[in-house]
Structure to design on (935 residues):
């Protein structure tokens, strides 16, 4: 019957289209994986095909240890991975650590100019790094923050979004709980640590996922604030590798290996913690 | 003098909305005082002022002889049971009960002693390691009470503690709270909008309306001698029957709905005076030997031990409580009798009882 | 401002709690912005030795001369294309996945992961596939007679950055559209089906109007992303070229300000970006307010 057959057909068509989309999205990663399994000579000789070559292990060894590629004036990717990990974690922890107390302050206290301070935090939304590249770099340079984790992370950890999200979470905590805590003799800080933070842990976890990705994927700011190759993060060196490769140097294998190493941690986080990720994303954008 | 004293306490929000007009109230020591009234009557505000969660706009609060008007809630030596229980969801039952003691620096051993004692008293020993989310409504209610008990406070404050429970559980918990309160003998203030809860639990009943105390006293007396139409109508289920009428030259009450009824000997009322007659459902009897009025049955509600008759009395509708016998059917017109001694008379203008 | 009924009345503590956030905001956000504003009103003198106040000269120069008007137009085209592609593909895929019911959820994992890609990483992956010399797609295109060389062909360069920029946003829009579709009550869809509305008609007369708030929201988010978050993408694929054909606003402000050290013009560009992000944020907040009202 057409009535029954039609939905089945539509389902098949839907599945097919979704599969095509998924394939198109995964295709660049597949090509990158293949490219990273060849060596420079293969590229020059035009040997790179659609299936794996024989030099995969050597490529990854080279980028991670830096052997050979550092000699080509390319950064040591193993080191960049470590820098990126530390940077992403510091940004995540830093943003959460300064947003929780500020959200607590604006939600639970009555004090002079509260609205003004809150608005001030919100101004950061209007000022992405692109708006203030040069002067921000100058500030960081004046504070001797170039080539340091402080410089890589501190200027990025102001977060209106996290503050706003935590405020929303706090507002959904029943008033009676606060009153019970007051009767139980909890001081504001005790209340914050014993009640508010544990009750916000789902939001904190969800935000951690989002912020880790945000921190890991930083590009422009690390590019400005690091002047030594030894401080490169993995995402920011991609621009340089790409340029080197596009200029004809046979380093596409290293470039693609680096790109893959740069995408694995955040993609892993999204796939492994999908539920938290989706929750964090949707809550954050509300 | 060791109960709770409120001296001219009032609460005005945002400079304009009056939640509580200046109120003076003495809450007797050791007893259970119930504040009852419809929502918005100021009963919760009053309780929150006693707790210190709300600052009074004027007046003073004295608990057990100590002026606590400016004292933090935690230092007032009181404990409160909230409507939604307000249990910390991430803490075990034990930690929930212990949290207030920990903050006060009570020693671990002492905390364990008190929590276990309270848990035994409430029959929740087996639940101490559970999280609130794993408990039923009644169990949560017990934990909330346990949290109050371990504090050994000078006063318990209950803010509609049973309104989130189903009817059966509410009945059980009512008895339980009452028993516990009597056993501990701690001054208690209990806020509810449920007149049944108020009547059954109170030693001292305080009826409030529009930010004012309209009547207080032992529940039986308030029920029998309401000071005004509002109190008469608020207490009792089914609600009191209210019928408008005026006093005739013959000294009988001529009801606007038609019938005439005998008036009690006291108070003496001038002929021609307009009054509102209040007749409780149980003050109307059917098939009595002296039945001298008639009413037509419209609807019968079976309650089990007895039944409610919805009847047309003249042109008005009245409700009465009747025994299960004799058999009756809707549409039947039956003789009824109003218990003259139990009739209440109110001034239709002011609502006050005629005395 | 909404606050808790139970608020603590102190001054020192909340300010101390706010202090770290405010310090970072003032030092790294407000102060540099103030400096940028000031710089935008100054120019180097003839010898490049001193900065002299020049009023709105930088802005005038920016908008009336040189290549900035072209950059604005190009940025708008880029952002518009990325947004359009992301919205349409995101919606189509979400409708497909939603129509599969529970089993559609497995597609979520397979379609959402590109959200985690850094724009620079997405860019370099596409740059390799389309590399004029050795890219596998380039070879495939040559096979069907298309000569691909985004290093020389500006149209192809723009196509490349639009495609690689859309990759991340398609995933993002898919996720939000799927959530919005799943929030539509099933009874509504069944009622429409009983009214004999076919799937296509249902999509246009029922689904699209119902998820209009999501579309508006995504529109703003996509535009913001395309205008501001795509620096790394340009910097790993076309480097703004060939010529200036893929130099969008954020890339030009970096080149002028950081590479060429032309502070005045760069600062004036910063202010233009500030206006743009301000407008987008305002729209977003108005939308948020509206969503709360529902």
């Amino acid at each position: 019957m057409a009535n029954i057959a039609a939905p089945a057909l539509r389902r098949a068509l839907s599945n097919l289209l979704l599969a095509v989309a998924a394939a198109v999205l995964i295709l660049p990663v597949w090509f990158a994986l293949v490219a990273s399994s060849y060596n420079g000579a293969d590229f020059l000789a035009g040997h790179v095909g659609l299936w794996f070559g024989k030099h995969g292990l050597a490529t990854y060894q080279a980028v991670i240890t830096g052997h050979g590629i550092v000699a080509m004036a390319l950064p040591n990717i193993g080191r960049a991975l470590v820098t990126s990990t530390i940077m992403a974690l510091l940004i995540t922890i830093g943003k959460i650590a300064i947003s929780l107390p500020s959200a607590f302050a604006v939600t639970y206290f009555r004090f002079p100019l509260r609205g003004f301070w809150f608005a001030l935090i919100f101004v950061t939304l209007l000022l992405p790094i692109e708006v203030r590249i040069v002067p921000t770099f100058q500030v960081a340079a004046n504070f001797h923050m170039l080539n340091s984790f402080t410089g890589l992370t501190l200027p990025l950890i102001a977060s209106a979004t996290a503050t706003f999200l935590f405020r929303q979470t706090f507002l959904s905590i029943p008033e009676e709980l606060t009153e019970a805590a007051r009767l139980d003799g909890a001081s504001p800080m005790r209340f914050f640590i014993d009640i508010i933070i544990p009750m916000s842990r789902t939001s904190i976890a969800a935000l951690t996922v989002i912020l880790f990705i945000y921190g890991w994927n930083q590009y422009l700011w690390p590019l400005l604030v690091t002047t030594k190759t030894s401080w490169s993060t993995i995402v920011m060196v991609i621009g340089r590798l790409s340029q080197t490769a596009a200029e004809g140097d046979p380093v596409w294998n290293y470039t693609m290996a680096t790109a893959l190493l740069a995408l694995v941690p955040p993609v892993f986080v999204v796939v492994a913690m999908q539920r938290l990720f989706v929750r964090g994303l949707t809550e954050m954008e509300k | 003098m060791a109960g709770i004293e409120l001296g001219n306490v009032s609460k005005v929000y945002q400079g304009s909305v009056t939640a509580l007009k200046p109120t003076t109230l003495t809450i007797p020591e050791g007893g259970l005082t119930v504040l009852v009234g419809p929502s918005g009557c100021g009963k919760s505000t009053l309780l929150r002022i006693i707790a210190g969660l709300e600052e009074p706009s004027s007046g003073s609060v004295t608990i057990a002889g100590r002026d606590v008007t400016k004292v933090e809630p935690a230092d007032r030596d009181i404990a409160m049971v909230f409507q939604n229980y307000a249990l910390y969801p991430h803490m075990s039952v034990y930690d929930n009960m212990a949290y207030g003691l920990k903050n006060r620096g009570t020693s671990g051993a002492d905390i364990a002693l008190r929590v276990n004692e309270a848990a035994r008293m409430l029959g929740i020993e087996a639940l101490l390691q559970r999280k609130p989310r794993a408990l039923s409504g009644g169990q949560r209610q017990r934990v909330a009470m346990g949290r109050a008990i371990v504090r050994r406070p000078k006063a318990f404050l209950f803010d509609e503690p049973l309104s989130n429970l189903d009817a059966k559980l509410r009945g059980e918990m009512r008895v339980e709270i009452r028993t516990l309160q009597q056993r501990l003998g701690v001054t208690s203030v209990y806020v509810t909008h449920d007149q049944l809860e108020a009547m059954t639990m109170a030693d001292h009943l305080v009826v409030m309306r529009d930010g004012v105390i309209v009547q207080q006293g032992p529940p039986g007396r308030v029920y029998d001698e309401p000071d005004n139409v509002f109190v008469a109508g608020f207490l009792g289920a089914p609600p009191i029957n209210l019928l408008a009428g005026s006093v005739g030259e013959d000294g009988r009450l001529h009801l606007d709905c038609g019938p005439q009824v005998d008036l009690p000997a006291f108070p003496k009322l001038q002929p021609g005076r307009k009054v509102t007659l209040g007749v409780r459902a149980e003050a109307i009897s059917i098939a009595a030997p002296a039945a001298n009025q008639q009413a037509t049955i419209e609807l019968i509600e079976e309650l089990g031990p007895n039944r409610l008759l919805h009847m047309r009395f003249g042109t008005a509708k009245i409700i009465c409580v009747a025994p299960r016998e004799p058999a009756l059917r809707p549409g039947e017109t039956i003789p009824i009798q109003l218990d003259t001694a139990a009739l209440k008379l109110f001034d239709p203008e002011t609502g006050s009882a005629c005395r | 401002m909404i606050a808790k009924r139970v608020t603590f009345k102190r001054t020192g503590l909340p300010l101390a709690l706010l202090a770290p956030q405010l310090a970072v905001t003032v030092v790294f956000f407000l102060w540099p912005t103030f400096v940028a504003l000031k710089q935008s009103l100054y120019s180097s003198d003839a010898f490049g030795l001193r900065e002299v106040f020049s009023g709105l000269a930088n802005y005038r120069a920016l908008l009336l001369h040189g290549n900035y008007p072209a950059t604005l137009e190009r940025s708008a085209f880029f952002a518009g294309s990325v947004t359009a592609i992301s919205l349409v593909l995101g919606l189509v895929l979400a409708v497909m996945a939603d129509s599969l019911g529970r089993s559609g959820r497995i597609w979520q994992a397979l379609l959402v992961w590109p959200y985690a890609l850094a724009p620079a990483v997405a860019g370099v992956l596409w740059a390799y596939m389309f590399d004029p010399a050795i890219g596998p797609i380039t070879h495939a295109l040559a096979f069907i007679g298309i000569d691909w060389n985004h290093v020389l062909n500006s149209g192809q360069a723009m196509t490349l950055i639009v495609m690689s920029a859309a990759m991340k946003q398609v995933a993002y829009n898919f996720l939000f559209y799927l959530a919005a579709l799943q929030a539509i009550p099933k009874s509504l869809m069944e009622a429409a089906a009983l009214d004999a509305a076919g799937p296509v008609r249902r999509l246009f007369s029922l689904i699209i109007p119902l998820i209009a708030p999501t579309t508006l929201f995504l529109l703003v988010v996509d535009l913001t992303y395309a205008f501001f978050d795509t620096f790394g993408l340009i910097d790993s694929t076309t480097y703004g070229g060939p010529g200036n054909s893929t130099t969008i606003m954020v890339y030009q402000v970096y080149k002028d300000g950081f590479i060429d050290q032309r502070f005045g013009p760069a600062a004036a560009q910063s202010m233009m970006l500030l206006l743009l992000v301000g407008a987008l944020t305002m729209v977003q907040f108005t939308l948020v307010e509206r969503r709360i009202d529902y």
Summary: Chain A touches chain C through 106 residues (CB under 8 Å). Confidence is low (pLDDT under 50) at residues 1-5 of chain A. Strands of chain A lie at 109-110.
